[in-house]
Amino acid sequence: QSPPEPLHALTGHTATVRPLAVAGDRLYSGSQDDTIRIWDIALDTPLLSNTLTNHTGTVNALAVAGGRLYSGSVDKTICVWDVTQNTPVLLHTLTGHTEAVYALAVA
Prior knowledge:
globular
């Protein structure tokens, strides 16, 4: 039996994709290219809707809850984004970590 074929390949990052998160009709991908890409996956063909560029290092962790996207990076920051609108808004950049942020959990 052959393995299943992928429905779609999402292209756009220029380096390795690390974390993924899904909430509703959106897929969030973080990368070693220091960006977060937001994909509308409700369409027959997924569409890149936004690219977030606030981090200055690899994006290692993503979590989504309550209309907020949380991203952690090698740059030692956590960014908090409002993703309830078509254009995400950076609400906070949390600093103070002395090493890279590798994991996030929200409830």
